[in-house]
Amino acid sequence: MTDAPRLSVAPMMDWTDRHCRMLHRQMSHRTLLYTEMVTAPALVRGGARHLLAFSTGEQPVALQLGGSEPDELAQAARMGADEGYGEINLNVGCPSDRVQSGCFGAILMKTPHLVADCVSAMIAAVPRTVEVTVKCRIGVDDQVAEEALPQFLTLVRTAGVRRVQIHARKAWLDGLSPKQNRDVPPLDYPLVYRMKAAFPDLHISLNGGIATLDAAAAHLAQRVDGVMIGRAAYHQPFDILGDADRCIFADDRPTLDRAGVVAAMEPYIAAHLAAGGRLHQVTRHMLGLFAGQPGARAWRRVLSYGASDRTAGLEVLRAGLAGVADAERKETCEIL
């Protein structure tokens, strides 16, 4: 793995599919992208290997797995490695009821020895060139995070894990919805900073409540190794990724503007349509591309309504761009 973990986009169910990742890649060469969580049972017992599909144009990209059975996770990790993923990540952070009922996700924070067994089996199943990593919370329910988190990190480090992404909130498995678990439990960034000081050999990325590149840079200045951004990277993708290579990676290669990102997506979308796909499957991830810009509302309206038609094609994108251009001209005239 390169230095991509310095900035990454969090795995998000129903959002970070292959179309979303291709969009994000147009804005940043360097940021590490993650798949949606794929469950090990779906791969091993359900034969759903198609869920692993990705394009080489998305690299660097990592696969996130959900599960709690070491042998099954080992088989799923091997499948991911065979498909070409350079990182296999174990989800120990998702608090949804569906995940809890499968005995994986954040509930595994209560059984750190089982997590250690899982990652040990996964590491043994993949080539040395493939990293096995863990995404976790600082704790769950009534755990004392200052005690539970270092115990957890010690066990997964002993099992062979060298990179961890920590969402700096507890998860409350009873009483809070998944949405509330993203906002209600207080953030404890200093605890994650202390974990980096206590475990200097671990690569630790900080996740949770980070909404700007300036905030990401401020956390990196606190000596964490990486920053993982979730919802902001989805809803305002250009604000996060459009300047990420320069600000986070000191990479001065030319980057695309928003209209250039749309143009760069056209060949990908055309191929998707030619293969029988629908336009909205891609453009639903593009609604926030012009967030905060003149014409953003027109862009969202055109894509939301136009892309829903079964016969919709690239003309919808071009109509959306025309709406943005009209709004920009009107604003310029008003200023003059």
Account of the 3D structure:
There is one protein chain. The protein has 336 residues and is α/β, with parallel strands linked by helices. The chain folds into two domains: 4-249, TIM Barrel; 258-335, no CATH class. Helix content is 46%, strand content 15%. The chain contains 16 helices and eight strands. It has helices at residues 18-27, 40-44, 70-83, 97-101, 112-125, 145-158, 178-181, 189-198, 213-220, 231-235, 237-241, 244-249, 258-274, 280-283, 296-306, 314-335, and strands at 7-9, 32-39, 61-66, 87-92, 131-140, 163-171, 203-207, 226-229. It has an eight-stranded parallel beta barrel, surrounded by six helices. Helix 1 (18-27) runs antiparallel to helix 13, helix 3 packs parallel to helix 5 (112-125) and helix 15 runs antiparallel to helix 16.
Task: Write a brief structural summary.
The protein has 336 residues and is of the alpha/beta class.
Residue windows where pLDDT falls under 50 for at least 5 positions:
none
CATH level-3 fold name of the largest domain: TIM Barrel
**CATH-scheme architecture of the largest domain:** Alpha-Beta Barrel
For CATH, the homologous superfamily of the largest domain is named as Aldolase class I
Q: Hey, roughly how much beta strand do the residues contain? A: 15-25%
Total helical elements = 16
Topology pattern, helix = H, strand = E: EHEHEHEHHEHEHHEHEHHHHHHH
Strand order of the largest sheet: 1-2-3-4-5-6-7-8
Largest beta-sheet characterization = 8 strands, parallel, barrel
- If you compute it from the alpha carbons, what radius of gyration comes out, rounded to the nearest whole angstrom? 20 Å
* Percent helix range: 40-55%
Mean pLDDT: 93
CATH class assignment of the largest domain: Alpha Beta
